[in-house]
User: Fold these one by one.
Assistant:
Number 1:
Amino acid sequence: MKTAYITHPDCLLHDTGVGHPENASRLQAINNRLIAAQLYDFLCHYQAPEVTREQLLRCHDAAYLDQVEKMMPLTGHAYLDPDTVLSPESLRAAKRAAGAVVKAVDLIMQEGLSNAFCSVRPPGHHAERMRAMGFCIYGNASIGAAHAIERYGLERMAILDFDVHHGNGSEDIFRDDKRVMVCSTFQHPFYPYTAIEESPDHIIYAPLEATAKSAEFREAVTSLWLPALDHFKPQMVFVSAGFDAHREDDMSGVSLTEADYRWVTEQIREVADRYAEGRIVSVLEGGYELHALARSAEAHLRVLMDL
Ligand SMILES: [Zn+2]
């Protein structure tokens, strides 16, 4: 098992302002934890390249890309929405974040790595085809899935999203593209307030009440994600790995622990081993309580590393 760990110093430069929960300390906390846990040296380290415009255009409209570039501030901050901030270096960070996922696909398809974790920010799963949202600028996981389809001719991708918020961006990008199944567990009703009454067969909602804990989360994954994935048989599995459902993370009501992140990663590995030759590209999404985030990412990575 060789696990790639892909990040870039530019991801630290995206400055969201004082007191914003999505900040550079998140990546540093994960990095430090992996060193302390003596996992760091057993990962295969890569720097993320910048995503190209061509790669972005597979998931976002040209008008949206132009609009973001036009809004970039020379100093201070500009706001894509009330939560989604641009600083002078934000686009560099966003291009590395999406580029990391493209790189992960290439490493697995060309270099024989088993799986990859992209420790990047800004996150991506709220970014829609034509709209930034919820701290997200580019749809990082979606851009990776689109790359696997366009570059390698794969036909069935799965995006598995256990962030506590619904991955509305991934859904928006692939709602009319049955090649990409999007499975999401999320607190409901909660931001981004997705209407979940109806969905096509390849969009799988697993809503959780605000009081949900381990048992409810595992039941949702077991009864809603796994049968759909067994039917779909994905050739590559992308993970929108948000750790903000942790009980110590006050972003949400749902109360998970590291053991749950370990468990769900084991389920994901089983799916990937069965149908996708083990190919997993995991991408950091949310997770804001730094200690819980770092411990949860470690638990997730230990399974990817087969430890
Ligand atoms: Zn989240």
Note: The domain at 3-304 is CATH 3.40.800.20 (Arginase; Chain A).
Number 2:
Amino acid sequence: MLSSPTPIALSPDLYGHAEVVAPLDNPPEDSLRAMSSSNPPPLHLTADMRRLSTPWPICLMRAEQLAERRLAEGKVLDPACGSGMQLFAYCARLRRPGIGIEIDSDAALLAAANGRRIADVHGDTWVDDSNVLVGDGLDAAAAIASVRANGRIISVLHVDPARPRDAQRHSLDEMEPPLSRLLSVWSPYLAEGPAGPGLIIDLSPRLSEEHMLEVEQLLHSSWPDAPLTWEWVSTGHGRIDRLTVWFGSAADPRCDARILRLLANGEVYCLGGSSDCPVAEIGAPPREGEWLTIVDTALVAAGLHDEWIERALPRKSEHRWLRSEGRRPLLLSSAEPRMHDPEVDAFVASTGKVAGRVKRPPTVANIDSLLVTIRSAYLSKLTLRCSLDPDEQPNIQRELDRAMRIYPRGRRGFLVDLPTDDGINWFVCVEPDGSTSR
Ligand SMILES: C[S@@+](CC[C@H](N)C(=O)[O-])C[C@H]1O[C@@H](n2cnc3c(N)ncnc32)[C@H](O)[C@@H]1O
């Protein structure tokens, strides 16, 4: 246990020291404009903070979501605040003061400087009443005393706990500080809105369904009727980037599942609704002319696939799932998905019309037989979107690219693998004109 927490005020006097620990990337003069996802404030971030912190557009989108909720009066608390980015994005949007607690004194100093930097861009009265404490986020009583407060002063508790880099079990007890202890020590200080306290808890993105249930039970054991929204964040690389539970006054009572899809240009698409039944896979292999679509992993994990399909496919189109697990969930449909709709496109990794089937695996030695199918589909580029040895994949892709350079005017396509009656087969798909492969 640390000695009593030391509060740091959010003051410009911190900038000199912060600049030594982690210099700003972008000069502040360029950023003194309204807070937006394309215009992040200048922040002091160490390499570890860059790796661990929530991307700025997601911080902002979450702050927007929180601003829509009816919260109790009070401050925003982050008892493991790291860079302070997410905490002070909430404070700036809600115009409420915040308390950050950070066990690492250098990180705490940077968080306080970052709070002030965010206030410089989006200044308000919240900053004078905000603090970062160097201390243990589990020592709630000492933290509250150190800011000379008492009682239920916390309207929102957000925590993104540290997790070991080599986490194996992705279980709750790997989180630091641990969730159950955090809840028990902070409960006496949580102000309750109409739907209970406001809690936002980041968890391991690979948490199993059992562990998710464990989180729900833990929260509902203290506040049985409070609403709960699960949120998945995806950057579209075939894995979930973040998994968060929004609870009580912070939850959206209209949806129990929500996905935030962060695009490379910083735009964030939000899809929310009621979680559907799990996907049922139907194994019969695709036929030529049907459409194969690799969808965002988060879509199936969140159970929002039916909601998306309604938007993505014409009413009369038939569809079935060929694969629901892993990095490349695969949807087969009789019609082309409506890729011109940005909210459809945001959740698609690749889509294309099936043009041929290959029975031999794509290896450097087998490229000639693959080229026969590629040529008959008039392709100038084929991206490998199948399971391959990660060391071999770049070599095969390079050889393919070299062999296909002689057809510069062709279409783009991709290759997926699927089990069939005679073992794994590989399907060549042709992307629609004008598509941009991710
Ligand atoms: C995943 S990072 C938080 C990232 C933060 N959300 C951001 O946007 O930068 C977790 C942080 O918790 C801090 N931490 C771990 N245990 C703690 C404790 N008992 N009390 C306070 N901070 C703690 C770590 O030092 C680390 O900076």
Note: The domain at 6-273 is CATH 3.40.50.150 (Rossmann fold).
